[in-house]
Design brief:
Elements (H helix, E strand, L loop, with lengths): L8 E5 L4 H12 L3 E6 L2 H13 L3 E6 L5 H15 L4 E4 L14 H28 L3 E6 L9 H8 L5 H21 L4 E8 L2 E2 L1 H4 L4 H11 L6 E2 H12 L10 E4 L3 H4 L1
Parallel strand pairs: 1-2, 1-4, 2-3, 4-5, 5-6, 6-9, 7-8
Length: 262
């Protein structure tokens, strides 16, 4: 039976860990040729080799989405390797430890640049290749933090919340999603956005604080227990496959019902 992404060429930023890594494995298992873009070379090469060992097709290309020249060079390298682009998963990004209202200008600029500006840079670099391919799909990574303030819940439990820059960057990504989707229709380019809630990844749990993390989702979700990387990967796969051909410009929660409970 044919895979859901057979023959498709997919770029995943932040593909060396967490949701990006899980999605890369999922895509490759469905027949996609996967380009892993990330800064940390050893991790990227490890994911590439793991996918190849499973019989999939993957190539790691170093890319820093916070740097325009790096993005352009990486996309050119991807097209040189596979001949085009059909899918882009704008997954790369990070938050900051500095809290509102004390967050420094440097922290604000760094987070906005990596998340919001990085998503725009990648979209801009890939767009003409999607047009040349006759269309394609883009999925952008937002967060439930774009629409819900976790301050009371998270601060009471773990003593910190996502930085103001993170909230703002994710909300900006959603506006960019709507805008680019409105331009993509004529080119058969669909652009959607996902809002994960509490998902167990090393980045989210701090590499070993699952018991603290558990207190957050126990208090804030409708569904008991955490989300897992595979849950998010399955949604991204659907949005990048032909099964979602009539969906564009949407913000889709994958949060265990957090948005309905809070």
């Amino acid at each position: 039976m044919a895979g859901r992404l057979d023959g498709k060429i997919a770029i995943i930023t932040g593909g060396n860990s967490g949701i990006g890594e899980g999605t890369a494995h999922r895509f490759a298992g469905e027949g996609a040729k996967v380009v892993l873009m990330a800064r940390r070379e050893k991790q990227g090469a490890d994911v590439q080799n793991a996918i190849r060992a499973e019989g999939g097709d993957a190539t790691y290309i170093r890319c820093d989405v916070a740097d325009s020249a790096s993005v352009v060079e990486a996309v050119v390298a991807a097209v040189d390797t596979y001949g085009g682009v059909d899918i882009l998963f704008n997954n790369a990004g990070f938050g900051a430890g500095e809290q509102f209202p004390e967050e420094s200008d440097e922290s604000w600029d760094r987070v906005i640049n990596a998340n919001l500006s990085g998503t725009h840079r990648m979209t801009k670099a890939v767009w003409p290749h999607l047009i040349k391919s006759g269309g394609g799909a883009i999925v952008n990574m937002s967060s439930i933090a774009a629409v819900i303030g976790f301050n009371k819940y998270m601060y009471d439990i773990v003593g910190r919340t996502p930085s103001a820059s993170y909230y703002a960057a994710k909300a900006g990504i959603e506006a960019l999603t709507r805008h680019s989707a409105s331009h993509g229709g004529q080119h058969k380019i669909r652009v959607n956005c996902i809002r994960p809630g509490q998902v167990l990844t090393p980045g989210a749990t701090g590499g070993g604080t699952e018991h603290v993390f558990k207190k957050v989702f126990d208090r804030t979700q409708i569904i008991d227990g955490p989300g897992y990387v595979i849950d998010v990967a399955n949604l991204v796969l659907f949005l990048c496959s032909d099964e979602s051909r009539f969906i564009t410009g949407e913000m889709i929660n994958i949060d265990g019902g957090t948005a309905r409970k809070l």
